[in-house]
Amino acid sequence: MLPADAQAVSPKETRKRPLVVMQSVSKVFSSGTVALSNMSLTVESGEFVSLLGPSGCGKSTALRIIAGLGDVTSGTIDWPSSRINSRGLPEGDIGFVFQEPTLMPWKNVFDNVHLPLRLRRVPKAAAHDQIIEVLTTVGLQDFAKAYPRELSGGMKMRVSIARALVTKPKLLLMDEPFAALDEITRQKLNDDVLRLWKATGITVIFVTHSVFESAYLSNRIVVMKARPGRVHADVPLITSLERDAHYRTSEEYRKACETVSHSLIGAINSAGDH
């Protein structure tokens, strides 16, 4: 029984709780460099949020802090919808795709994807179906026995994405994963990530310095000022069109790029303001 003055929380209300909340986060490195200053950001479950800003604005630092790969100097990171472990992080709820695929060259695709499960002491045999399932999701089911040296740059990045997804995380963090790829491969992988996002309902935070990429992928873009990084603008992107090759040439996409570009210019011009 609830106390008389208590209010019951319905499952629907529970689902509305944010996935992650950055509150007044600042980060100062040992060198004295101020990477982030009083940055606040709330990400809801199921969103595709891009962090957009000039090089050195703290996008990757913010992402790494959310992932627990760096400590905050001040402020807090909260996970209202998750069970928290002893390190203050959600248990098994985060997948991370780095700028480089970071694959182990001496292991084949299957074994590279197995790594996060192996760290959880899940035997290869028990993980087999789960690994094949995620490789199928990224279109690499026929390359399970291939080695990284036998793969193209785009295929290596797909392996990295599969490795991040194999634990079925709630949140996928992507740190400029396609920046080093050619434009055709990059567009294909953008489409792959959108397809995965729609199919799985996973929440994505995607770091990029490309206006065009952010406007194509996101339903929300957080534009950051130059160092010290903080939020300049929070731009929602809602479209009635399917995001595909036709969308790339649409007037709606052009307008979205224009809006985001103007916001980015404003962030750069006001970089010295506090």
UniProtKB/TrEMBL annotation:
Domain annotation ABC transporter: ranges: 20-251
Similarity comment: Belongs to the ABC transporter superfamily.
Pfam family, one: ABC_tran
Keywords: ATP-binding, Nucleotide-binding, Transport
Name by which UniProt lists this protein: ABC transporter ATP-binding protein
Origin species: Rhizobium laguerreae
Gene Ontology MF terms: ATP binding; ATP hydrolysis activity
Taxonomic superkingdom: Bacteria
Database matches in SUPFAM superfamilies: P-loop containing nucleoside triphosphate hydrolases
Stored PROSITE patterns: ABC_TRANSPORTER_1, ABC_TRANSPORTER_2
